Amino acid sequence: MVSYTFYAKALRLFQAYPSLSKILIVSTVGGGSLLAFSDDCRPFLRVFTDGGQQPESKKKKVVVLGTGWAATSFLKYLKSESYEVQVVSPRNYFAFTPLLPSVTNGTVEARSIVEPIRNILSKRPYQIDFKEAECFKIDASNKTLHCRSAQVTNLGGKEEFTVDYDILIIAVGAQVNTFNTPGVSEYAHFLKEVEDAQKLRNTLVDCFERANLPSVSDEERKRILHFVVVGGGPVGVEFAAELHDVVVQDIAKLYPSVNNLAKITLLEAGDHILNMYDKRITKFAETKFQRDGIDLKTGSMVTKLSAKDVSTKDRATGECGSIPYGLVVWSTGIAPRPVILDFMKQIGQGSRRVLATDEWLRVEGCDSVYALGDCATINQRKAMEDILAIFGQVKKDDTNFLNKQEFRKVIGDITERYPQVQLYLKKSKVKNMVALLDKYEGEIDIEKFKEALSQVDSQMKNLPATAQVAAQQGEYLAKCFNRMEKCEQNPEGPRRFRTTGHHRFHPFRYKHFGQFAPLGGEQTAAQLPGDWVSIGHSTQWLWYSIYASKLVSWRTRMLVVSDWFRRFTFGRDTSRI
Amino acid sequence: MVSYTFYAKALRLFQAYPSLSKILIVSTVGGGSLLAFSDDCRPFLRVFTDGGQQPESKKKKVVVLGTGWAATSFLKYLKSESYEVQVVSPRNYFAFTPLLPSVTNGTVEARSIVEPIRNILSKRPYQIDFKEAECFKIDASNKTLHCRSAQVTNLGGKEEFTVDYDILIIAVGAQVNTFNTPGVSEYAHFLKEVEDAQKLRNTLVDCFERANLPSVSDEERKRILHFVVVGGGPVGVEFAAELHDVVVQDIAKLYPSVNNLAKITLLEAGDHILNMYDKRITKFAETKFQRDGIDLKTGSMVTKLSAKDVSTKDRATGECGSIPYGLVVWSTGIAPRPVILDFMKQIGQGSRRVLATDEWLRVEGCDSVYALGDCATINQRKAMEDILAIFGQVKKDDTNFLNKQEFRKVIGDITERYPQVQLYLKKSKVKNMVALLDKYEGEIDIEKFKEALSQVDSQMKNLPATAQVAAQQGEYLAKCFNRMEKCEQNPEGPRRFRTTGHHRFHPFRYKHFGQFAPLGGEQTAAQLPGDWVSIGHSTQWLWYSIYASKLVSWRTRMLVVSDWFRRFTFGRDTSRI
């Protein structure tokens, strides 16, 4: 590619007179003024920096695994230039996953909800390197990652390479949990990746086109048009609801002869769908589904999937059944990826189900490794584990009784370090920690202190595996990294009870901004903080506006909004491409 | 799906009181008033019509094979309700193929250029049935089509069925011509179908991502980023030009470290690219490509493709060469599909290269079968074949000399039946047919008449295989079908010279509205009727506006225009999905 820019001309000049290049390096290193010319000059500068004439970078090498919510949020908020950042992920784009169910039904296009990671990175004020590859082994003892290109093309063999790191940030997400149910990985569709949604969309159209062929028997036609959703969580429910809309709004017009044969069944192992939501939302959804003719089977476990049948077992009666289907969507939760399971064994977490981090998102039992998003959970420290240490810091000198004045001073540290305390106080309707001790007469000794706090740990809860949590963790970690040096000198976190001094940073705290459950027919349920519940058409518009505002770039925002507009105006696209 | 509409309720009412249904049928058949309720009532009416209580349809069964330019244009213009129309095609959508090169580079999205065929059909005033299947055998003697579902899913086996027809319209298009070059079908990319463009787009991104991996050697990197286009026709040239734009405008920013390694080579077996265009356009394009750094190798034939190398042979010197490549795009012309080759054998056209029709688009040697678009060519009748018959009709009674008065009367018929006459007159700069005979002295006998017309057939030309021709043929044929009964009685075509009377219809006549060749960098060349040539930025805007206006629906129009807008504002999308 020939491009006659200033830089190309300058490059040729320097090639002709090599001595000039030193002047350029001085000017670059000195004032960085040439950098102000932005993008175009990068390849040019690279000519010299690659030559090794510049002093070796003393920056710490940070490697980020993943391009999902957590990783992208981290990269977006990282402002400090004291790191050399590299991103490794098999997906060269960020996907706005909450809109995946909309992609399956053609309400929104797949390309509208993705943003190339290189676009995001090119807007950062410093250079971040991206490698499209999958990390298949984390070697924590040598601080090395083993990576492999995820491409399946005829461009060459499977490229494998290693990447060294000083600091590792694991944000690889999770995979679908099949609970080892036979046949699921062969026959079920998932709703985890963009490719899943695209495949699902095409299979949906396939079902209707095939049911429309003259050689298909009526019974077979019914089977092909039976859509089974396994899992009554928000994703499964949203998919079932959107699918119902598609059938009523679009298929009825385009496939009039088979439209009345389509049937949707939702299988849920628990007693209710949307069981993590408020009961009012569950009830509304169940009633709406019944009215829509969606067959809701709760208490029904899937034991096996064959090419044409779902085998089920009723949890209460133990009765077994078999349902012929044309399409099964499996949406029952997540499990760790193999690379994470292997890593857990290396660092002594082999007996755990999920990778554990502390409240600062540092992987337990491992140096300089952070994990965030769906691939890890925070192992919240129990207050009772540290009860002696806490008491030791607040007792009167030379006695075994509580010094209430000292205690008041550290209440803030305690509630920050053990957030379950706050939840317990709220649940027990006790004003504050001092009030908790008020029921004891006389001086408080260690036994009374233990007794008063004995129940607080019952309030510990794992965070849900949502985009909201992952994004907040990414932002939190980036902000810690930005203030790393400052906080080394002036720690801002809570007091350390077992040793002395303070933690460098405040621990991560999740702020819940509410959760949506789209229920089809332009109706959405929302559970907002403070037990607020909102259901209906206006909530759908709230959903539209919040999702539009949360989209990662103006490009995706424009695309998704125009997709919605297109859907309202022209209906959904049923082309099988 | 339960939908509590008026019709569902009515249906239940009729199921309870069957006698009522007769009233409904009477009202339907009598006034058709219920039909005015449109779409919603169709599945309901079907309940009764399927029962066979309605009188058997006497309509002729027209089967259309294909959903491309010719078929869609035919369906769009067909207004007569005296046919029962069925469409069979493996693609359930129409694709606006001239924008395919834009899809490969992400300038336009694949979904923006397709329109579901069912959307198009649902807007027709009468019901048209669509089957998503591929016709793999045409049995002309039994008037039966053997079809098979093209789906590769786990929905069931390969569905096969037959479709009977009274009138068959073949518009299946063509396939890529590999000229049996070894390795082409395995390793090359094509630009024929939407899937090709999508695959090509992902492979392009793959190339850049892979070249960016640390384990790839510099030499390998150069190979991976070498893009070879085979064929210097308008599609190959447009693809090469757009690819150059992508590299300069987008890749430079997003992949700064490998950008300067990318190289494009265009191989053309002839002496010039764009050889069907005006010489000025060819020259402009060749100069622009040279300036852009696109390596243009004319006179170079491809003899073999291996996984990583293109083998070439210089047409002049016979010298053989080998070019390492990362991506090859093969765009060298078209060949008939296997189903057409088989059909040609059946009807005695086995020795021909392409299916032949007469000027009314009727397949030669076959009853009630029409072929249009890329799958057939019009076998223009030679004037010399009919020269005796023509002369017989215009000679003086009882003599062997031309009656000039009679001759004048049939000149219109002759030039309509043999359009090459007109072209010959224009080329020879002769005013009209009478003037052609003026150079002979005395009375004109058959020998002089023959001599005067002996050169006209040299002006016969096959029509190009373009969307423009296919669309005009579809429109022409639909308009013939619309006026079938009327023209049976009052034929409007030219005089039949060999027998008596007139042909039913005017023969098909192609109107050339010009042709575009986008050359990248917001520049386009256009060859307009009357040897007008226009090249440059303003022509690019002409291209934008004509393509936008020609798009098949308001939906695709909106989508493509917003894609262009998006590309101008945000650049192209390089996500690999």
From TrEMBL, chains A, B:
Domain of life: Eukaryota
Domain External alternative NADH-ubiquinone oxidoreductase-like C-terminal, residue spans: 512-573
Protein name: NADH:ubiquinone reductase (non-electrogenic)
InterPro entries named in the record: EF-hand-dom_pair, FAD/NAD-bd_sf, FAD/NAD-binding_dom, NDH-2, NDH2-like_C
Cofactor(s) annotated in UniProt: FAD
Molecular function in Gene Ontology: NADH dehydrogenase (quinone) (non-electrogenic) activity
Organism: Durio zibethinus
SUPFAM superfamilies recorded: EF-hand, FAD/NAD(P)-binding domain
Location relative to the cell: Mitochondrion inner membrane; Peroxisome
GO cellular component, one term: mitochondrial inner membrane
Domain FAD/NAD(P)-binding: 60-380
Reaction(s) catalysed by this chain's protein: a ubiquinone + NADH + H(+) = a ubiquinol + NAD(+); a quinone + NADH + H(+) = a quinol + NAD(+)
Membrane protein topology class: Peripheral membrane protein
Keyword tags: FAD, Flavoprotein, Membrane, Mitochondrion, Mitochondrion inner membrane, NAD, Oxidoreductase, Peroxisome, Transit peptide
Record-linked Pfam families: NDH2_C, Pyr_redox_2
Protein encoded by which gene: LOC111308435
Major localisation: mitochondrion
Enzyme class, spelled out: oxidoreductase
Gene3D superfamilies registered for this protein in UniProt: 3.50.50.100
